[in-house]
Amino acid sequence: MPARFLSILGVLVAFCSLNITSAAEPVRVGVLGLDNYQCVEYAVMYNMPKTEAALARLTPEARQDAEQSMKDFAGLRVTVALPIGSPDIPESVENQPKWIAQIQRPGVKIVSTVEELLAECDCVMIFSLDGRQHLEQAKKVLAAKKRLFIGRPLAASLADVREIFRIAEENKTPVWSASQHRYSPGFYGMRGHPEVGKVLGVDVYGGCPTEPHHPELYWHALHGIETLYTIMGPGCESVRCVSTPYAESITGVWKDGRVGTFRGIKQGKPKYSATVFGDLGVSTAGVYGHGVPVKGIVPTTDRYMGYEAIGREMAKFFKGGPAPVSPEETIEIFTFMDAAHESKAKGGTPIEIKVVK
């Protein structure tokens, strides 16, 4: 065999070996903030794949779905976490110690500074409960050119939401945020549902607890409002909010004349779902975490997805995929909520989204 060919072959073998080694290295994920249970959930998802024994207990359809999740999660590892809490949020004070203990079980290292965290990861999840902190936290992550996912609420003001995306663009580093409700199969599966067809409108309902340190709708109702956008898509033009001790009733009118509503349940046991109106029919949506209805019957004994569905989207993003929700749509969702706040303050007067500052 000619010496020149052997030399080229040697280079190719070496190159391939380097690629194999590189491909085998996991994408290291860091967690900023440990007062939110989701940080533990994703560490377990990415670091502790299901065993064959666990898969064997599933139905064939559920097993296929679980195996798809495992494929999406492969190549990621949560390596490091930084505890951050908020003394004026009781949930943060109460829960952070147990989440710190639990996240170490999948092998996650606890560090004491943002700089240490950034040195030991390739991308970051911000899961501190406090949206007031997220802009300052995001600045450091984006300056380090680390891909970033921020759990809801993205921020505690519309100005901070816009600034986070501006900084991301300036640093040419992608960031996104979404509620886990966006990827609940029974919600996103209503767009193009064969019994509904083209979505003409939707009535969403869900819980609406509030905290004094965040705008009312940002704290929890945003999960239901994001469900509204999941099914309707962006393009809302005006918002009207009627508030009573029982509910926040918010109506949005889209540019094409479609109407979507959100009922924020303030009294009574909350449930998370919707009624969807289409050109082919009307159907209830699935309930959070479960699949789409068939002939009006909502499945509740199928495989519960919960955080797993959005975990897939996060995994694809951390491995180099595009942000699945655009900055424009996310900004519109927070503008929708601010318009609702303004409408409520003005006694239910409709507010055009374009005038919200």
Describe the structure.
The longest helix is centred in the N-terminal third of the chain and has 22 residues. Helix 2 runs parallel beside helix 5 and helix 8 packs antiparallel against helix 13. The chain is an alpha/beta fold and 357 residues long. It has 2 domains: 151 residues, NAD(P)-binding Rossmann-like Domain (Rossmann fold); 153 residues, Dihydrodipicolinate Reductase, domain 2 (2-Layer Sandwich), CATH 3.30.360. The N terminus is likely disordered. The strands form 2 sheets. A 7-stranded mixed sheet has the order 12-11-7-10-9-8-13, covered by helices on one side. It has a 6-stranded parallel sheet with strand order 3-2-1-4-5-6, with helices on both faces. The termini are far apart. A hairpin with a 3-residue loop joins strand 8 and strand 9. The protein is 40% helix and 19% strand.
Q: Helix and strand layout, with pairings?
A:
Layout lengths: L2 H22 L2 E6 L5 H10 L4 H5 L3 H14 L2 E7 L7 H14 L5 E2 L3 H6 L3 E4 L7 H10 L3 E4 L7 H13 L4 E2 L8 H4 L10 E9 L8 H4 L2 H11 L3 E8 L3 E8 L4 E7 L7 E6 L3 E3 L23 H11 L8 H19 L5 E2 L5
Parallel strand pairs: 1-2, 1-4, 2-3, 4-5, 5-6, 7-10
Antiparallel strand pairs: 7-11, 8-9, 8-13, 9-10, 11-12
